[in-house]
Write a structure and sequence with these properties.
By secondary structure, the chain is an alpha/beta fold. It is built from 14 helices and nine strands. A hairpin with a 3-residue loop joins strand 2 and strand 3. The two termini are 13 Å apart.
Length: 335
């Protein structure tokens, strides 16, 4: 059963759908908030022993089939010389954002030296639970990282990076390529340290027009994901009606947000494995409601090539009992 997630990612029919949740080690768990009261966000993710404690919290509560390392998509900014911090109530703040075209040509550091704490975390997770569940690694995608880097933080509708693309298309391409190069190296680094599956979160790329996605981002997704040594998952929000583009990324699994009809996605993607896609807000319903809606997703996805997950991350106020109902629904299936 420990390879259930890997087998589903490879398109196999499995005894039941494997299950994990995006942001599953986050703020919905009371113990997480207790640990974080002692450390800043970057201290928590860059101290392997602390990150390990946080990563294992959902294992102790739910025993999911995928244990996603506790980290952040912005860690990969560091090898490209960006400085950032996280402000309470504000979110990530990039201290030296891209302000002109010349800033897009980034100096390149070393993933192994700049992000060695991630390798140490994965080594410890493999030693702790690696034979009991799949270890999930991840990275942010080029457009999502560029959105933070250009805006200096979160931005409404990602206007700053979209304007940068309009004003400086060559520099925009240079910036995205720099991110793609380091992300590719970073994901292989995670695989070398024991990640069984990796997910590329280019969450915000769905705000681009179909033409811009195909021109600027799709080739980089293919560059990052093609020929990785472990199964890969691509996740982009707001791609309903454009799943064919995600099918062309080279990912083994297409992650679906909650706006996509699961049955329609399976029909459109054919044999391509999928992940998702319960609306995260459904977890604020009763456990009975959660089980009912979760079973609907499982039934629509069919018996092979499906990884059960939410359509996005777990909200910070989600009740633990609802997450437990979600996970246990998957575990109750017998095929």
């Amino acid at each position: 059963m420990s390879n259930l997630l890997v087998r589903a990612a490879q398109g196999e029919r499995t005894e039941r759908p494997p299950v994990w949740l995006m942001r599953q080690a986050g703020r919905h768990i009371p113990e997480y908030r207790e640990i974080r009261s002692e450390y800043s966000f970057r201290e928590a993710i860059e101290t392997p022993e602390v990150a390990k404690r946080i990563t294992l919290l959902p294992w102790e509560l739910y025993e999911p089939d995928g244990l996603v390392m506790f980290s952040d998509i912005l860690t990969v900014l560091e090898p490209l010389g960006f400085d950032y911090h996280v402000e309470s109530g504000v979110g990530p703040v990039v201290e030296n954002p891209v302000e002109n075209p010349e800033d897009a040509d980034r100096p390149r550091g070393s993933v192994a030296s700049d992000l060695g704490f991630v390798g140490s975390l994965l080594d410890e997770l493999v030693a702790e639970v690696g034979d009991q569940t799949a270890i999930v690694g991840f990275a942010g995608g080029p457009f999502t990282l560029a959105s933070y880097a250009v805006a200096g933080g979160a931005s409404r509708n990602h206007g700053p990076v979209r304007r940068f693309r309009a004003r400086h298309p060559d520099a925009f391409r240079t910036l995205l390529s720099a991110f793609a190069d380091v992300v590719r190296e970073y994901l292989e680094y995670q695989a070398d340290h024991g990640a069984d599956v990796i997910q590329l979160f280019d969450t915000y790329a769905g705000v681009l027009s179909p033409t811009d996605y195909r021109e600027f981002v799709l080739p980089l997704h293919r560059e990052i994901l093609s020929d990785l040594s472990v199964p890969s998952i691509i996740f982009v929000r707001n791609m309903a009606g454009r799943l064919d583009s995600l099918d062309r990324t080279g990912a083994d699994v297409v992650g679906l947000d909650w706006t996509v009809d699961m049955a329609d996605a399976r029909a459109e993607l054919g044999d391509r494995p999928v992940q998702g896609n319960l609306d995260p807000q459904y977890l604020f319903g009763s456990p009975e409601f959660v089980r009912e809606r979760t079973n609907e997703v499982i039934d629509a996805a069919g018996p092979s090539g499906h990884i059960l997950n939410l359509g996005h991350g777990v909200h910070r106020d989600t009740p633990v009992e609802s997450v437990r109902a979600f996970v246990e629904t998957a575990k109750s299936i017998s095929r």
